[in-house]
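Record type: ASSEMBLY
Status: queued
Input:
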Amino acid sequence: MPIKKKISVKVNGKVFQRNAKVRQNLADFLREELDLTGTHIGCEHGACGACTILFDGQSVRSCLMFAVQADGAEITTVEGLSQGNQLHPLQESFWECHALQCGYCTPGFLLTLVPFLRNRPDPSEEEIRKAISGNLCRCTGYQNIVMAVLKFIQKNKGKWETGTSEQP
Amino acid sequence: MLTTSYLTYLLPTACEVPSVHIEHLEIPSKLNPIGVRGARELGTIGAPAAVANAIEECPFKLWRPDPGVPPDSGPDLAARFGCNFVTLRHRCMMR
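Status: finished
Output:
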């Protein structure tokens, strides 16, 4: 019988209370306990970035954290980026630029880019490439991801709220 | 085994993959009537769909590329894919 600890975590604006297994990582917790399967698990040792989420507004690899560490935290997963059928503006740009091939790495890329663009609204292409260098795309489809970011910047200049943690 | 994880089996990242510009060069082969060339090791996932589409779009019911796929055998072809012909067309369009 695994040892469990009661945690309370706010995910995508909704508070969840669960008994989390103390050895369960946060990525597994989100997928298995909260059924939020948009967070993908690639390597399970922090090398690929597929499981990236926003943890109190910061990009974090959810496979490198235990679920119990998220007690009291505020988390955004890829499910929390869109508002119903309304995609997040960055997702719109990904869609327009065909910035995904198999799509497995996409949630991780999105959640790496959202805080990056919040802090740095007008980066150069080189800076974008550096920002996503910790996320692996096995299709190596980085070019269209970079193009999507450039398109997002061009389309949302001044429109996209920066510097707030309210809007991801 | 030296490459047991992504820390030792290094994949290219966004910093290593250069910008690529794609151009299509269409040079039909002279060795066969329809000019096709070998697909080599590329994925051939689109090929059956392209064949089904070509059959569907063919204005003349003359083309008989394979005895298994006669020109008027849309429904049979669909049955081979395990769906009805409307679904097959839909699937072809999705590809």
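Annotation: Residues 90-95 of chain B have pLDDT under 50 and may be disordered.
Annotation: Helices of chain B lie at 46-57, 74-80, 85-94.
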